[in-house]
Write a structure and sequence with these properties.
This protein is of the alpha+beta class and 192 residues long. Helices cover 21% and strands 20% of the residues. The protein has 4 helices and 8 strands; from the N terminus they run βαβαβαβββαββ. A hairpin with a 2-residue loop joins β4 and β5. α3 runs parallel beside α4. The protein is globular and about 40 Å long. The termini are far apart. 36% of the residues are buried.
Length: 192
């Protein structure tokens, strides 16, 4: 998918970033507070890098504090760099669906606001197709509970402040480090 340019507002452009190495792909997911979601993706074999940040908003270079005002329309996302030969995109989608309540509009647990909405932000048409197919499958499983997950092209990614990166692996607000080792199944404890 070619990046478009909106010279008057770069935050509305498609994400122009590319994976660090040939053969890798990027993906973006919004599933509530990005700390726990990032740690879950870090543990997945084939994921070579994760970053947390903001996307889908209308303000260039937002800060965490600004996003939390609810005035930028950004969503907290995890941008995943992965090797599709080791970790198919469908594995990322399975983890995404398992990590949050996709029927909860603009909230996950106690976290409330548009920045906590559920979203899959795709980089190419294959990702878009797989995302839509996975949403349809999830909806069949949930019957009468309507999924509110948005599926949209990945807009420009704005990396969150450094203290947010790998936050739970580094110990979070309590200094209790959590393992990001591949395959780790320890419960993820999200704390500020």
């Amino acid at each position: 998918m070619a990046a478009n340019s909106n010279s008057s507002n770069p935050s509305l452009d498609l994400d122009p970033d590319q994976p660090e190495h040939p053969g890798l792909e990027l993906a973006q997911f919004g599933a509530g507070c990005f700390w726990g979601v990032e740690l879950a993706f870090q543990r997945l074999a084939g994921v070579v890098k994760t970053e947390v940040g903001f996307s889908q908003g209308h303000v260039p270079d937002p800060t965490y504090k600004l996003v939390c005002t609810g005035n930028t329309n950004h969503v907290e996302v995890v941008r995943v760099q992965f090797d599709p030969n080791v970790c198919p995109y469908s594995n990322l989608l399975s983890l995404f669906w398992s990590r949050h309540d996709p029927t909860s509009l603009n909230r996950q647990g106690g976290d409330v606001g548009t920045q906590y909405r559920s979203g899959i932000y795709f980089y190419n048409e294959d990702q878009a197709r797989l995302a839509n197919e996975s949403l349809e499958a999830q909806q069949r499983e949930l019957n009468d509970r309507r999924i509110v997950t948005e599926i949209l092209p990945a807009k420009r990614f704005y990396r969150a402040e450094e203290y947010h990166q790998q936050y739970l692996e580094k110990g979070g607000g309590r200094g209790l480090r959590q393992s990001a080792e591949k395959g780790c199944t320890d419960p993820i404890r999200c704390y500020g």
